Amino acid sequence: MKLRFTKMHGAGNDFVVLDATRTPMSLTPEQLRRVADRRFGVGCDQVLVIEGSTTPGVDFGYRIFNADGSEVEQCGNGSRCFVRYVVDKGLTDKHTVRVQTVNKILELRLREDGRVTVDMGAPVFDLPQVPFDPKGVTPRRENGFALWPLALGDGITAEVAVLSMGNPHAVQRVDDVDHAPVGLVGPLVEHHERFPRRVNAGFMQVLSRSEVKLRVFERGSGETLACGTGACAAVVAGIRLGWLDDSVEVHTRGGDLRIEWAGLVPGGPGLEASVHMTGPAQTVFEGEIEL
Ligand SMILES: N[C@@H](CCC[C@H](N)C(=O)O)C(=O)O
User: So where's the catalytic machinery, residue-wise (predicted)?
Assistant: First the structure.
């Protein structure tokens, strides 16, 4: 089978984008891993499949697969590439599109300066929904928000804020992110037994109340140059913990993202404000691969 693809990236988080708007497409986990393989395939952090939609008020469907072939719920940098793709390919003439992922509808806006702003929806703090198992541990709280201790073996420990942006995140604060042991601690957090569906592990250095540096060891893909939902999760956690203001520049190894969150809305869980993410989305090349 020959597969036409577009290679894209958002702040260095790279994607193979597949158009399934006309013909349904279903790749096996093995085929997805082959496409994502940097030596034997095209190479990417995630494969994005763009589908049509019959739901009123929704323009497209959007499926996301990690490099290990697992299907996931959300991809922030991918959603920015998504809107760039559908506009550039003439699949829509709208510059604001609504897309259905596995568990959310996102609104994406291609701006005049070429960057994309995404309404990522509200963060979720309900632990079973993340999902995270808190049984038998007491968190330390800062500004009322929980920091959970994790024993990672061999005397290694971490203290993480836990939340979902539609996908699960564990965010820890570090003093110097460039020298943080992301390659060692990241996989231990990703596979920790308290996260039954694994987790994306974020490492955040706070530079000021409006600027952070971030590295993320992504579930199913390893460390990437940027993680959009990871940036949203880190900033939301930083705001809840009292470290950050409501608009933050996130410096990743692949570029900068602006994250804005108005915080908790009175009225209880589920009514939190949406997180807005703005950043780049670029096409690198197009091609065809024989699977
Ligand atoms: N790179 C993404 C996140 C992709 C999914 C993630 N690895 C997961 O398994 O949840 C982003 O930009 O958000």
Answer: 75 (proton donor), 75, 227 (proton acceptor)
